[in-house]
Amino acid sequence: MIPVRATFEKRRRAKYISHLDLMRCMQRAFKRAGVPIWYTEGFNPHAYLMFPLALSLGYESGCECMDFRIDGDMPMQEAMARLNRVLPPDLQIVRVAPPVRKHTDIAFADYAVCLDCAEGTAADDLRAAWDRFIAQPEIPVEKKTKRGTAEVDVKAQAQILMTATLEDGLWLRLRMPAGTSVNVNPGLLTDAFTAWLPEHAPGICTGMLHAERTAILCADGSEFV
After folding, report:
1. Which pTM was predicted?
2. Could you tell me the mean pLDDT of each successive run of 10 residues in the chain, 225 residues long?
3. CB under 8 Å to 158, separation ≥6 — which residues?
4. Does domain 104-218 have CATH number 3.30.70?
5. In whole angstroms, what is the distance from residue 139 CA to residue 202 CA?
6. Based on the number of CB atoms within 10 Å of its own CB, is 91 exposed (0-12), middle (13-18) or buried (19 or more)?
7. Distance between the two ends of the chain, CA-based, in angstroms?
8. Domain extent listing, the chain
9. For residues 200 and 206, what is the distance between their CA atoms, to the nearest angstrom?
10. How is domain 2-99 classified at the architecture level of CATH?
């Protein structure tokens, strides 16, 4: 039995596939590809597939991870080639290797987000509004949890790695807590911004144009592999 960690892309139309449907898609892909995947034992055996960090609907990514076990002597590269032949073009595996870190080592995720300027609005105006918004001492938001909702200071949770003004809007690079203990979606921050705008800078932003997860990181800042 060979443990494998596959890194895959979720692009374009595939970003609208929910996490549950993604799991179903991968299970069917293994069957179609003829990859001998290991099944759990017990009363109700099922294919062992583990996704360490679910991706929000509507987000693209080039760094998604999936763990599985080859039940046989098939090389990892052959398993990847077989799977890519049956997977849709917007959902492709880019790397396979033995797992190094445990999924509990995940601590952060990096994101690239583009906020779209409203028609007739200069990107510099949107940047100025963002700077005023993020300069607030606290940005409290309601976050859904397994026990209901809780108020969190999303500014304290987010790290702003980059802010850039481009012709089509405002680009942000964000680092957010992720993993088994704390998981904060960057949409909490951008939604708080768009909710703040009508009172402070109305009509300059139409919302999020693009969102992509660019890295999954451990607590020491190293890549999750």
Report:
1. 0.92
2. 95 95 95 92 84 95 96 94 96 97 96 92 93 96 82 94 90 94 91 94 89 96 95
3. 174, 175, 176, 184, 186, 189
4. yes
5. 19
6. buried
7. 19
8. 2-99, 104-218
9. 15
10. 2-Layer Sandwich (3.30)
